[in-house]
């Protein structure tokens, strides 16, 4: 009775999201409101919405759940995770087959028949998907082993640089996490006046404590919803994995939002621009605005195009990103620049009379100039991102399982390359012949190493420095 009451409560909370006409324009807001109303963690709410929304694709199972409420949230989340591996463009006929299979699975045929738990549902659904599409079939144990070896780990090795042996540290993670690591390293370097190299060594060796606070700057459309990509300077647009990591980071720490539209018209009497002005200038320029310079804008200085001391205002229209070198070129009056308000190009005028044009590399110009923005509807974006990532990983691990069975490196790499091209992502596991292929045991009937001296010199001759055969004494 208690279990049934709990399932009915879950159904009352989440079943509205299983309707065919479900449309959530602000997914984050919906999650926040339900979390506040129920006291549940946001991860529970998020998982519940997605799990019940999956029933839109499974009308038989939805009708059964609405009538009998047999499935707990754990059951529905297990179903959602496995069906996600079919990808965001799963065939309707395939989904109909799975719907019929699940409806039959959860329909008892005998009195007091044991009801499958979520783990059993996962196993059975995995077998059904394997029957439908062998390319999605992978061994969960091998996947866990690979991920345990690869994720949350770093590789310490050494390489030769100009004849000198140097230690090397490789850290692999998603771009959101790496941007946070970079922010703490940079902040620690500023606090202690260190190079980035020395800051990393100091932090990892315990010489320095991490900075108490560090910020990462990202760009996103106003009113962004969970699951939609963001732009991280120095890393670009987030892929599905990094987008999920960013959303999880926002659940832990409330982000501070800067309205770039307001910054566009803002002014200050101070020489120093506000943080919002800098953010907008960096988004507009992308890099140092000198022709041919690719130094990222977030590492540049902000130049008053018309000098502050000569009446130039501190506003975005008078602030441009210049690296130290090219800032000096302008300050020394070797060149001056004029922005074209129509195109966003920067025209540089030189003292010898010639000019050059620097095109804008900023995210604003790229985004506003494209007919298909990166962001899409909120709930659909979350579902598409997660399903794409789930299918990609399932197919990648199935390929690696085949490599574990046959040891065919070439076929494995070709299959992974084809998969990566199709999805536009990089699979984090690739074959390692040196460690994956076992060494062949020596033939016990032969010596472990060939006796070249006997095989090539059965008469036991020695060769002296003059290359003359001499008989061995004795």
* Form type: globular
Low-confidence stretches: 369-377, 435-474
Q: Report the average pLDDT across residues.
A: 82
Given helix and strand content, the structural type is: mainly alpha
Profile the largest sheet.
Answer: 3 strands, antiparallel
Q: Helix proportion of residues, in percent?
A: 40-55%
- For the biggest β-sheet, the strand order reads 9-10-11
Radius of gyration: 31 Å
The CA-CA distance between the termini, in Å, is: 99 Å
Per DSSP, the total helix count is 19
How much β-strand is present in the residues?
5-15%
Number of DSSP E strands: 13
Biased composition (Acidic residues): 442-456
Protein name: Restriction endonuclease
Region (Disordered): 433-460
Keywords: Endonuclease, Hydrolase, Nuclease
Question: How would you describe what is shown here?
Answer:
With 474 residues, this protein is mostly helical. Among the domains are: 1-137, no CATH class; 167-204, no CATH class; 216-255, no CATH class; 260-358, no CATH class. 47% of the residues lie in helices and 11% in strands. The chain contains 19 helices and 13 strands. A 3-stranded antiparallel sheet has the order 9-10-11. A hairpin with a 2-residue loop joins β1 (154-161) and β2. The longest helix has 29 residues, at 378-406. The model is unreliable at 369-377 and 435-474 (pLDDT under 50). Residues 433-460 are annotated as: Disordered. This is Restriction endonuclease. Residues 276-328 form the HNH nuclease domain. InterPro entries: HNH_nuc.
């Amino acid at each position: 009775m208690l279990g049934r009451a709990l399932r009915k409560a879950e159904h009352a909370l989440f079943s509205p999201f299983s309707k065919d006409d479900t449309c959530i324009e602000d997914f984050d807001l919906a999650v926040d409101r339900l979390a506040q109303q129920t006291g549940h963690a946001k991860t529970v709410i998020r998982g519940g919405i997605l799990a019940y929304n999956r029933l839109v694709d499974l009308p038989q199972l939805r009708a059964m759940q609405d009538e009998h409420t047999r499935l707990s949230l754990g059951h529905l989340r297990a179903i959602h995770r496995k069906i996600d591996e079919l990808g965001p463009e799963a065939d309707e006929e395939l989904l109909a087959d799975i719907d019929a299979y699940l409806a039959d699975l959860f329909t008892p045929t005998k009195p007091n028949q044991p009801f499958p738990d979520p783990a059993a549902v996962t196993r059975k659904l995995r077998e059904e998907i394997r029957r439908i599409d062998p390319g999605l079939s992978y061994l969960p144990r091998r996947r866990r082993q690979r991920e345990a070896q690869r994720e949350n780990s770093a590789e310490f090795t050494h390489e030769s640089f100009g004849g000198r042996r140097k230690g090397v540290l490789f850290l692999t993670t998603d771009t959101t996490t790496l941007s946070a690591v970079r922010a703490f390293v940079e902040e620690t370097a500023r606090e202690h006046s260190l190079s980035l190299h020395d800051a990393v060594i100091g932090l990892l060796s315990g010489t320095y404590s991490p900075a108490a606070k560090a910020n990462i700057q990202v760009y996103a459309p106003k009113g962004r919803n969970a699951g939609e990509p963001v732009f991280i300077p120095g890393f670009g647009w987030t892929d599905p994995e990094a987008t999920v990591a960013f959303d999880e980071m926002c659940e832990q720490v409330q982000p501070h939002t800067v309205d770039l539209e307001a910054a566009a018209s803002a002014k200050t009497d101070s020489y120093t621009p506000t943080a919002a002005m800098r953010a907008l200038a960096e988004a507009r320029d992308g890099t140092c605005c000198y022709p041919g310079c690719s130094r990222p804008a977030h590492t540049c200085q902000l130049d008053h195009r018309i000098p502050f001391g000569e009446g130039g205002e501190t506003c975005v229209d008078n602030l441009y990103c210049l690296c130290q070198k090219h800032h000096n070129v302008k300050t020394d009056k070797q060149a001056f620049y004029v922005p074209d308000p129509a195109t966003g190009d920067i025209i540089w005028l030189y003292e010898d009379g010639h000019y050059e044009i620097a095109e804008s590399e900023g995210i604003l110009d790229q985004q506003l100039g494209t007919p298909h923005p990166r962001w899409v509807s909120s709930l659909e974006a979350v579902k598409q991102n997660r399903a794409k990532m789930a299918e990609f990983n399932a197919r990648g691990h199935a390929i690696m399982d085949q490599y574990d069975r046959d040891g065919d490196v070439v076929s494995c790499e070709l299959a992974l390359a084809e998969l990566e091209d199709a999805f536009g992502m990089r699979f984090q596991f690739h074959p390692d012949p040196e460690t994956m292929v076992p060494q062949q045991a020596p033939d016990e009937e032969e010596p472990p190493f060939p006796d070249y001296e006997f095989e090539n010199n059965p008469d036991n001759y020695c060769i002296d420095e003059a290359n003359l055969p001499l008989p061995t004494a004795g």
